[in-house]
Write a structure and sequence with these properties.
alpha/beta; TIM Barrel; twelve-stranded mixed beta sheet; globular; binds guanosine-5'-triphosphate; binds S-adenosylmethionine; binds iron/sulfur cluster; GTP binding
Length: 326
Amino acid sequence: MEDRYQREINYLRVSVTDRCNLRCHYCMPPQGVSVVPRKEILTLEEIVRVVQASTRVGVKKVRLTGGEPLVRRGITGLVRALAAIPEIDDLALTTNGILLAAQAGQLKAAGLRRVNVSLDTLKPERYSYITRGGRLEAVWQGIERSLELGLHPVKLNVVVVRGFNDDEICDLARLSLDRPLHVRFIELMPFGTAAGVSREGYVSTAEIRGWIEEELGQLQEVRKLTGSGPARYYRLAGAAGTIGFISAVSDHFCGRCNRLRLTATGALRPCLFHEYEIDLKGPLRRGATLDELAELVARAVRDKPGQHHLNQGQSCSRKNMSQIGG
Ligand SMILES: Nc1nc2c(ncn2[C@@H]2O[C@H](COP(=O)(O)OP(=O)(O)OP(=O)(O)O)[C@@H](O)[C@H]2O)c(=O)[nH]1
Ligand SMILES: C[S@@+](CC[C@H](N)C(=O)[O-])C[C@H]1O[C@@H](n2cnc3c(N)ncnc32)[C@H](O)[C@@H]1O
Ligand code: SF4
Ligand code: SF4
């Protein structure tokens, strides 16, 4: 369905949990965010119902995220149920990769098409620092397993933070040379916990791209790579994979935004940077029909804001990515 800015909204990002097994500095405070009581979180059946309803207003692509989606019990069953909805033609997952090696086989068998894995550094001690305790080796095992299983395209998400991983940009970009890995550099966004870090830590796409081209040569634009998100893709000469840029701050992609978010607590959020949400959990638990739920999804599409205004002084989102469904 089209919104009032003539954007086709066909992508639903579903946060299946607000919990996480890591505590990345730019995403969560050390103690984690306050844990929502379990009964406030949508059940897997409720999530399936919302996705079914959203297909009635044109949703075709679903991404499971969080928090960390692989800590949610029953995630494989959820994937199986969503893969069985005929209107859904792309079912993907964004994960920190820690539990991926163990679960990738069953997820693939259940119908998961592909994975995006977050990886900000190639140095084990640094990884442990930024994630407050994560083990890089486990993430690599997850990436290798995903490649073996053909969860293609396997994309890597690198949030670039000045003074933390800006010295590794070219090494990370080189990962795209020999294998079909799609390395995406993401501009740091000023969310709750990241609001402080983002002032000094933010690096623009232009700067990142400059470093890569200076050391590794010209990037050629790639027209199409499976996906529904905001990245623009390029290739280094002769590379098996690609390099992508997600320029959320410097060159926002709101004009081609195609998505809604479903938070773990059952709210539909039309825009990442606007606090406005429509509650679906109440109606779900009062027995709303699929048509009634679809009407609420349509309202979220109609009410979708045109863009964020971070560059014109819009204040940061008070919530963290993990709470909204990053
Ligand atoms: N500002 C903004 N940033 C977004 C939005 N959606 C995704 N992002 C950013 O893009 C990053 C990568 O998102 P992913 O979860 O990997 O998914 P994607 O890039 O949409 O997925 P595909 O292109 O379908 O592979 C997120 O971590 C955010 O930093 C959005 O709606 N607005
Ligand atoms: C919130 S996480 C949820 C899924 C999973 N836990 C993971 O880390 O991939 C989704 C993505 O959001 C990104 N992210 C978190 N905080 C961010 C911020 N302040 N700016 C830009 N990206 C951010 C993460 O790096 C990750 O790639
Ligand atoms: S970025 Fe992902 S892995 Fe890191 S704390 Fe946030 S939700 Fe957890
Ligand atoms: S900031 Fe809002 S309108 Fe812009 S791309 Fe993100 S969700 Fe879409």
